[in-house]
Write a structure and sequence with these properties.
There is one protein chain. This protein is mainly α. The chain folds into three domains: 27-420, no CATH class; 443-535, no CATH class; 538-649, Serine Threonine Protein Phosphatase 5, Tetratricopeptide repeat, CATH 1.25.40.10. The chain is built from 26 helices and nine strands. A five-stranded mixed beta sheet has the order 4-3-5-8-7. It has a two-stranded antiparallel sheet with strand order 1-2. α2 packs parallel to α17. The longest helix has 51 residues, at 388-438.
Length: 662
Amino acid sequence: MAKGTKKQEKRQKNARQVADISLNLNLNKTAQAVILAVLLLLSIGLPYYYINYAYSVNQYYSFPLDDPWIHLQFAKNIAEYGSFSYFKNEIVTAGSTSPLYTIILAAGFFITKNEMWLSYILGIIFFTLSIYYFYRLSSLTFPKENWLAIAAALLLVFDKWLNLITVTGMETTMYIFLLIACYYYYRKMNPIGFAVTLGLTFWTRPDALAFIGAIAIDYFLRVYLKNKAPKENADVTLFEKKDLYKIAGIFGFIMAAYFVMNYIISGSLLPNTYGAKIAYYSAEFRSRGDFLKTEVWEYFTESAYILIFIPFVFGIVKLINDSFRLRYNPLIPAFLFIAILIFMYWYKLPYAHRFGRYMMPVFPFYILLAVYGGRQFFIWLANFMNDKKLVNGLNMILLAGTVVYFASGYYENRKNYQDQSRHIYIRQVVAAKWLKDNTPESSIIATHDVGAIAFYSERKVLDVVGLINPEFISRLNKTEFVDFVLEQMKSQKVSYMAFLKEWFQVVNDEPLIEFGDQNFEIMQIFRYQPDKIHILSAEVNSGIQYAVNFINARQYQQALSVLKQVAAMDPNSSLTYIRLAYVYTALNDPGNAEKSLLKAIEIYPGYRDAILSLANLYKAQNKIPETKNIIGKYLETNPNDTTALRIISGLGETKQDSIKLK
């Protein structure tokens, strides 16, 4: 007993030695209301500027992701048909990751049919609510120093990624709002607000399990520390028994409703998207090490974030120190949520998606811990330097500089938002509108990007990666996947295919039309002809892309080695042989270049690029009869091809024409 008492006295003595450098601006209610109003206005104006800037450059509204139109397609059908379906009242499926957000969108369609502004406004509303609750949460964390709460809120409102994601039509800001509000109600020990928001987080994203787990662990820790060291934790409050019953009842009901809805719709407890993404981006095909390096470490330490990373580490050190001293720290759930969420993605889905949006929900907690950790560092520094004014000044300078740096990053990121919005528009949106104008209404479109194509084409789609059609999920990343896709396209009477060639490369046929620029992520539309088309497997397609990288670096021997392996894996790919012909030409081996082109034409007799390349090869070797023969046959079916006409009209020339790599 005496030994325990001495330990407690030592802890209390150490606590008294910590410098009190509190700096309260003593803001009255009016001043606080003005500051909050400014924060809320910023949360509206900053993301709106992204919309306005992108429109001023692009001259159209768009999203920098295809996924928002998935929510909109479901929402439109709920509003029009009362069905959680993906085509009119057909294809009833649990294909929305965020059913709560989808339902809210559906309600919005009764107010406006403008899908873009409906999505923009909802994103901004939830971002504004996030800032409101974050400021209140920060005020709980820094009750005696309101300037720290203001600084934390400014960092969040100027965050470049949160502003971008606010106007992407995604559920992310709603999810962040619910997480912050739930944490706030938990800190306030408000049982009803806590239970409702906790349950709704799961309705917004299944990875809310990380937050639920963090809160559960924290509460057990609260109870343990309250009993183990009651004096050190005298200010720690717990829910009363009746409140725990309320929480269990409300939370249990909301969760049960979620699982029942998914089960009724699709026969599973979770949305199709969960299984599809786990299968497609599994750890066997995505490196966990690369995920931690690029999508976690580099993401949270790049640019302005490096200024808050070190204070964040100090915050973690403080949490650990308090735990060893049996002193409860109310920021433990923030750290647990960050750690558990990263672990979940590392273990099950090592992929943070475009812009790192799966990691964005931790930003408020990351910022809060960083501001807290920075303050703890300066408290330590005050003890060391014995100069409170200097230390407070340094803390202010650091935070002010960080806010300015965040604001600078926000401003620069507007170009990224504009460019990526254009990227999606000229591929998915324009392709969808082409399909609407150039295909029969009864057409079925096979695709892997089901958002804009389904929404704007108004055609039924077959989703070959399983978000909408779950029968594909079990075959993803399997050797028989391509054969299964072909089988399903035939049995489900697909009319057209719309694929990004980096994802699904169709060979032995020419696309009807292509959309995109810079030869990156080109959307190709094909008429589905079951006896003609050939889709490359993921291994073969990635192998060809790997070889092209070697070709672009002029490492032709390495490219040749890769392409030979690819040809052995899939001998029916005409694309492989035209790539081989290019490499053989670069290696000054016209004999093998000719053989490769003849093989490509044998596989695909109408292969324009191979025919013209072979004609150029013969022409360079002064084989005039062979050149006339191959071009003559081609012109019989393509009499207006200007390139072919130019080749045959210039047969007297001796200038060599290289084979062009398309």
